[in-house]
Every structure is written in structure tokens, then in C-alpha cells.
Input
Amino acid sequence: MGSDRPKVIDYWQATARSPASSPKGLKTTIMLITWEIWKERNERVFDNKSSLPTEVMRRIKEEEKDWIIAGAKNLADLVG
Output
């Protein structure tokens, strides 16, 4: 039952090795997006609720602002 499709860990490892202008900011962004998708998944599975993709994106952008206020300097540099 193997799958040839890449897994999230494959993307994460490729990103970690990638030379980017702000690798820490990029990693923080990936963690933020993954966290919000995970929370959406949990709401769907455990609470039988789902949001439209536009709503999930809105929450990601709001959370991004909060992370920057909390001191995610590299994230601020990436999106700034």
C-alpha cells in the first residue's frame, strides 16, 4: 500500500536544505500554515465543522500578525 507521493516531511526537509533569503522566516511560515491546517483538520474530524479555504487563509493571516507581534522577527522580515 505504498505511495509515491511526497510526504510533508519531504517538503520540510527540502525547505530546510534550501538556500532562501530568510530560511528562518520561511520555516516559521511553514510551521504556521501547518498548524492552522492541523487545527482545521481537527475541527472537521472531532467537531464535524469545516471552513471554506478563504476562511482558513484569513485565520492564517491573523495568526501571522499575532506571531509577529509576539516576536517572530524572521517572519516579519519575510512578509514585511
User: Anything to note?
Assistant: Residues 8-79 form one domain.
